[in-house]
Amino acid sequence: SAVISQKPSRDICQRGTSLTIQCQVDSQVTMMFWYRQQPGQSLTLIATANQGSEATYESGFVIDKFPISRPNLTFSTLTVSNMSPEDSSIYLCSVDLSALTQYFGPGTRLLVL
Amino acid sequence: ELKVEQNPLFLSMQEGKNYTIYCNYSTTSDRLYWYRQDPGKSLESLFVLLSNGAVKQEGRLMASLDTKARLSTLHITAAVHDLSATYFCAVDRWVNTGNQFYFGTGTSLTVIP
After folding, report:
1. CA quadruple B61, B66, B72, B77: dihedral sign
2. Residue B33 CA to chain centroid, in angstroms?
3. Mean pLDDT of the residues in chain B
4. Which segments of chain A have a pLDDT < 70?
5. Burial environment of residue B82 by CB neighbours within 10 A (0 to 12, 13 to 18, 19 or more)
């Protein structure tokens, strides 16, 4: 298994501002994933972040809105840019250690006013 | 487009009763995952089903997989209040950026004393 931490755990932000979410893993992993879970909804994959290459974004998500960094094998950041109330969600990072399952961080609960 | 659907979306059941949650998916996949999410918490891996006919049991929960029918079931036996949570199924698909998970719509389970 993996121990995954996220910072911040929650935040309340004003529209038009940006928030950077950090994800730290206790072991080296090739792939890290960022998901969004809107209130009462399932998880939607935002992007896949591999170390040493540009993140790959899913349909409906763009780099200008959700820039991602992956500076090493244990860390990644997701920035939610120019926020609007529609960005209020839980943002989760996950890792795929053995290709058998994904382990999820505790999530970052974001409220945009 | 890969779709993963669960039913029911909401389930309210009395303690001691049995019920089954269904997960249908639209693409060929030999692997199916079940997760549990408690309110305000992240996702916890419950089962990984790796082949057709796979059956796994943990306590009052039993999961099975029929890859030909593209169907997985999560059976609850003699429900207790502690099982109240949201349950997600997921399938994976290998793409050139890695192993991507696609989550179902979720089933919100409430067990009533």
Report:
1. negative
2. 7
3. 91
4. 98-99
5. exposed
Distance (Å) from the alpha carbon of A42 to chain B's nearest alpha carbon: 5
What digits encode the pLDDT tens for the residues B9-48?
999 999 999 999 999 999 877 789 999 999 888 899 999 9
**17-46 of B, contacting A, C-beta below 8 A:** 31, 33, 40-43, 45
Contact B75, B62 (CB under 8 A): yes
Neighbouring CB atoms inside 10 A of A101's CB total 22
Q: Per the structure block, which two tokens stand in for A70?
A: 């992956």
Q: Which pLDDT score is estimated for B109? A: 96
CA-to-CA dists, residue B64 to B17, B50, B83, angstroms: 19, 10, 18
**B71 at A interface, C-beta within 8 A:** no
- Token pair for residue A49? 């972040």
For A54, name the nearest residue in chain B, comparing CA atoms only.
B97
Given the structure tokens 């763009």, which residue do they identify? Answer: A62
